[in-house]
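Fold it.
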Amino acid sequence: MSKIVNETQQQIRQAILDAMGKAVSEGKLPAEPVCDFKIEVPNDTANGDFSSNVAMMSTKTFRMNPRKIGETILEYINLEGTYLARCEIAGPGFLNFYLSPSYYSAILKDVRECGKDYGRSDYGKGKKVNVEFVSANPTGPMHMGNARGGALGDCLAAIMDYAGYDVSREFYINDAGNQIEKFGLSLDIRYQQLFKGEDAVELPEDSYHGEDIKERAKEFADIHGDSYLEKSEDERRKALIDYALPKNIDNMKTTLSKYRIEYDKWFNESIVHNDGELKDTIELLKANGLTYEKDGALWYKNIEVQTKMLLSQGKTQDAIDKLELKDDVLIRANGNPTYFAADIAYHRNKLEVRKFDIAIDIWGADHHGHVARMKSALDAIGVDSTRLDVILMQLVRLTRNGEAVRMSKRTGKAITLVDLLEEIPVDASRFLFNMREAGSQMDFDLDLAVEQSSKNPVYYCQYAHARICSIIKKLNTDGIELRDCTDEELQLLTDETERDIIRHLASLTEEIVDAVKKYDPAKITRYTIELATLFHKFYNACRVVCEDEALMQARAYLCICVRDTIKNILNLLKIEAPESM
């Protein structure tokens, strides 16, 4: 929480403890240990700005009615020298505290003094966090799930950095294994069809049938002609993969860069295949008795491991049987490792080799069943699975005029991330994809995303910023020199719309920490919308330019605090904060 909010809560706690101490010394309360109690912000400010349940929590210890305990504390409480104006008792014994004007001025001063760092905290204590997101298969174009996952992952990483974590953004490139073999086969067939005809060489049903495969095969043919028809199948497919895969990966990097996503690490799956980490991981599983051979393949005892884990969590055998667990192949009969085997090695690399304290993966909701088996596999090789957190993200439905949209107007094919970014501003895409928590399905309104009105949430927030810039510019044009304000001048901000803004500004640090705890950056977009709403209410209720020069300066000071906070958050989300619209 912000420095001032934290200090205020400490003042409340100390005032309560001092009052209880005095009451004990005068025999009004029994000499018993003080129990733990909470200090919270009520949902309704009519019930105070802060509230404590100390009286209810002390009932059992003191063997007294909570209302009586509250009245006794209230009798001895002293708020002199604090940010608090008064304390009242309500209901069964809640102690409700009301802020003094000095609190509001102190919050505004803190916003200005912290500048770009307002809202930052050391909550994360510098823990190393790896946030892996998008990680789209490089064998084809990126889709809407990648658009949502990209915005979610990048903004989650940003707020975690703000909350004091040492964050690394990572893209996992699936450049090895079965999907790459399928990629090579698909390219090979399309290459041969260019010279022999589509009927001469049939593309298997389970291959990649996208137009992008045809395009890559043709590009290769334009360079090499039909010379690779005479090569061996292995040599031809290797050459096609070596040509096409880097191009696809470069396209991904370019597209994601346009989406304002820059990764700290592009990690190749082939690394764990080639440097022995996959082999070491398999050997660990073997050594722990968690594998067996069947039909020429090596299997992982997933049923045994997960059953043991679920029983330890209190699940019944009947409940476990309903899950219909299955064992998993680690090494296929042809000697190739499965994606699951490589994935275990990859997560071991993140947590044990590269020593990240926490690994966060963002997966599609269809990977739900993979979470438990991945965590249990990590535990099975001695890696603490609580250090892996998986965010499951629901699908996106694109709409236009209230109807579902599946095809691009430009290409007539399924809409890709590239298509989206050509039609929708990046600001709108990043903001709107972070409007809902990951676990909820969302409709993305293509019409709303380009609408320049208050109905568009990102436009609404940007307009609040631009409006404040216009106010400040007008003051300067009129020859009004803005200056720093004294605490007394800032305490002139007594209108409820002004107080509401300041209370909201005060909550930013805690909102960011709460968003991090819940892995929900949508809380910050909603925070920004609320801040813009509060500003517009203030603007309609209070004139910045007024006859009282001190009040005018204080209101301008408040405006600047709102402007800078909106800009900081939009910059955090990699969204522009225009000065005019």
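The first strand starts at residue 39 and ends at 40.
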